[in-house]
């Protein structure tokens, strides 16, 4: 079944209300990293009908990704940007999807996410997270940043929370668990953290600033 743009948009308005959907229609969110966090964040935001999604990742889907990331076996070997784009277009083909299959570094971060109201950081490594936070808070003064930190292991999902650290930076996670401690990344807990990030992005787009 192929819905028209009006049919799908009318359904979103019916669920979200016209005023909320109008704000989401005009919004732009960037996602840095399309793994366990980023792929799920993107799906949530596409279902909300966020008007423009900027998807950035340099990697391809690997079999080791399948236990927690929003991909299937048929995606193995495909760039994550392209595999995820196919999924998102099946959910809502009428949004503006911008993909960049490249590694985010200080020299290109501001260019990649220019015009985004919110950027969701979804990298694996602490140094990558710190680089993006420092770069975007400095070079994109109007953008909010929502980061993920601490979602490893099988601890209680209730330990995952959203906190406003300072200014335009929000951090989601338990703030403690780390794969370096020998605990793995498991699908349910990673998805909970991704939902926190997507929810905070939504609230920021609607003008709410408290976590």
Descriptive overview:
- The protein has 211 residues and is of the alpha/beta class.
- The protein has a single domain, classed as Rossmann fold, CATH 3.40.50.720.
- Helices cover 39% and strands 17% of the residues.
- It is built from 7 helices and 7 strands, in the order H-H-E-H-E-H-E-H-E-H-E-E-E-H.
- The protein has helices at residues 5-16, 18-25, 36-48, 80-91, 109-112, 126-139, 187-205; strands at 28-32, 52-56, 96-100, 118-121, 144-148, 161-166, 169-173.
- Strands 3-2-1-4-5-7-6 form a 7-stranded mixed β-sheet, with helices on both faces.
- Helix 6 links the parallel strand 4 (118-121) and strand 5.
- Helix 1 crosses helix 2 (18-25), helix 3 (36-48) packs parallel to helix 4 and helix 3 (36-48) crosses helix 7.
- The radius of gyration is 16 Å and the shape is globular.
- The model has no long low-confidence stretch (mean pLDDT 95).
